[in-house]
Amino acid sequence: xxxxxxxxxxxxxxxxxxxxxxxxxxxxxxxxxxxxxxxxxxxxxxxxxxxxxxxxxxxxxxxxxxxxxxxxxxxxxxxxxxxxxxxxxxxxxxxxxxxxxxxxxxxxxxxxxxxxxxxx
Length: 120
Prior knowledge:
Layout: E1 5-6, E2 10-11, E3 14-15, H1 29-39, H2 42-52, H3 65-70, H4 74-82, E4 85-86, H5 97-104
Parallel strand pairs: 3-4
Antiparallel strand pairs: 1-2
C-alpha cells in the first residue's frame, strides 16, 4: 500500500535511522572503526533485519530472497526510502517546536524539591 499523498501528490515518509560515529576524543578510534565496519556489514544488517525488523542499510538486502520470504514488505520499502524526506536537523525547529516546548515544561527530578512533596 502506498503512503498517503499530499499536494501536489508526493508521498510523505520521514528518513531516519541508526547512525554510528566516533568521538574525536575516543581513546580507541581504530577499535571503534572496526565495530562500525562490523555493525554495518552485510551479514549484520541481514541479522538486524531478520531478528529486529530494522530496515537494512545495504541496498542488496532489499532483494535478498531470505529476507523477502520473511518480510515481503521490503519489496516496496526501498522505493519508500528513496523518496523519503530527511528529518529536521534539530527537534526544536518548526514544526517540532511544540514537542520541545512540551518536554521543557515537564519538571525533572533535579528541579523538583522533595521538601514540597506531601507526606502520606
